[in-house]
Amino acid sequence: MSLDKSGSILSFGWEEWVALPQLGLPAIQAKVDTGAKTSALHAYDIEVFGASSKPKVRFMVHPVPGREDIVFACSAEIKDRREVTSSNGESENRYVIETNLLVNGHRWPIEITLSNRATMSNRMLLGRQALKDHISIVATERFLQPELSYDVYHSKRVRETAPERALRVAVLSREDNYSTRRLVEEGEKRGHVVEVIDTTRCYMALNALAPEVHYDGKRLARYDAVIPRIGASITSYGTAVVRQFETIGTFCVNSSQGITASRDKLHAHQLMARHKIGMPNTAFAASPKDTNSIVGLVGTAPLIVKLLESTQGKGVVLAETKKAAESVIDAFRGLKANFLVQNFVKEAAGEDIRCFVIGGKVVASMRRTGAEGDFRSNLHRGGTAEAVKISKAERDVVLKATKAFGLHMAGVDLLRASDGPKVLEVNSSPGLEGIEGASGKNIAGTLYEMIEARVRPAPVRKRGKAKA
C-alpha cells in the first residue's frame, strides 16, 4: 500500500521522485497532475511485437531531462490503446501499460500511457488513477517524499538490478531444422518474441545516418539480439547482413568477422597458427607442381585431404598412401577446388570431441564416433555421440580457439593426440540436436541466458555528450 510507516496517507507535492522498478527505471521526477486521469511516461521508438493475442510494446526512454545520451530500452504487455486529449486540446492514440509505482518503499500498480514528452521538463506525469485515495496532495510543495538521484544511472547497480524483460530476437536461418525450432521454442518459453528471418530475403539500406535492414518490402524492426545461423553456401551475403545489424548496433551472438574467419578453413588455420593453438600439421598450395612438397610438409601417409568449403564431413577424404594422396589432390585440382592437406591422427581412432562454448565457457562436451568403416565422426554421416569429460588442457585450448575467432557461441572440434589436443575446426553455427541429446543439457536455454545478460536495460551512452 501507499501508507507511510505510521499508517498515515502519503503526502505528495506537485512534483515527486518516483521509480518504476519493473521497467528498470530507478529514479524519475514526476509531475503530479490531478487534472489528468491516466499517468504518462516519456517514450519514443515505440514498437509493437509478439502474438496478436497477447501483444507487447517495446520503447526507448530518456529518463533524465536534457541527457539524451542516457537511453533505456523497456518492454511491457499492452493493456489497452486509448485516445488521450492533452491540456492543449490535441488528441493522440496511446498504448497503455500497467506497471508498479515505487515511492519510499511503497509500491502499487498503475496504468501508464506512452507518449513522447521530450519537450516536457518532467519525463513522467502522475494522474488521478495512480493517486486514487492513497495520496494527499499539497499543491504548494515539492518533493515531500525522500529524494532520489539521477546519479544512480551512472552506477553498476542499474545493470545488476535490471528486471527481466521480453526481448525481440531474430534467428537468421533458411532452414526449418532442430536448431532453429529449439531457438524459437526456448525463446518463447522464456517470454521473448523470436522471429526466424530468411537471410537471403534481407536487403540493406546503406546510409551513414540511418542504416537499415529490409525484409520482404518492409524495414525490419529494432531487435535486441540476432542469432546468426548462416549456411555455408551463403556465407558472403549472410555475413554482410550480420555486418549491417552490427552497424545498427544490434547485439549479434556471433560477429560477421568471426563467422567469416571460421568458414574459410585456410583463414581459420592461419588464425589458429598465429595464436599458437594446437592443430594437425596442415599445408595448402595453388600450384599443381607442388603436390609432392605439400605431402612432404604434412608428413607421411595416411593423410587427410579436405575441401576448404566442406561441411558435415562432405569433401573430406582419407588417403591411405602417398600415391592415393597425390591422386586425390590431382582430382581436386582438376575440379579447380581449393583444399587443405593434413596429417592423420591415428591415435584418435575415428573419434573426436565436440565442445560447445557459450559466453566464454564450455557448457557441454560430447565424444563423437564414426560409423563402422568411416574415419569421419560427423553425426550427419551416421556417427554416434555420448557425453564426455574433458581435461583442463582440452578446455584451455577450446576457450583459446573460441577467443581467437571472437565468437560468443561456437562448437570446437578437437582430436586427442599423443602430444596433446589438436583443434580440427571452430564452427560458428554449431547444431544443437547432437549436443543436447548427448549431454542432456538445455543448451538453447544457456544461450538465452547469455543473451539476456548482454542486453539487459542498462543505459546506453552516446559519445560527445557532457556529463551531468
TrEMBL record:
Cofactor(s) the record lists? Mg(2+); Mn(2+)
Q: Which Pfam families match?
A: RimK, Rimk_N, Zn_protease
Molecular function terms from GO: ATP binding; metal ion binding; ribosomal S6-glutamic acid ligase activity
Which InterPro entries does this chain map to?
A: Asp_endopeptidase (IPR008503), ATP-grasp (IPR011761), ATP-grasp_RimK-type (IPR013651), ATP_grasp_subdomain_1 (IPR013815), Peptidase_aspartic_dom_sf (IPR021109), Rimk_N (IPR041107), Rp_bS6_RimK/Lys_biosynth_LsyX (IPR004666)
Keyword Manganese: yes or no? yes
Q: Which domain of life is it from?
A: Bacteria
Q: Does the keyword Metal-binding apply?
A: yes
Q: Name one GO biological process term.
A: translation
Signal peptide segment: none
Q: Give the protein family.
A: In the C-terminal section; belongs to the RimK family.
Name-wise, this protein is Probable alpha-L-glutamate ligase
Organism (species): Lentibacter algarum
Q: What is the lineage of its organism?
A: Bacteria, Pseudomonadati, Pseudomonadota, Alphaproteobacteria, Rhodobacterales
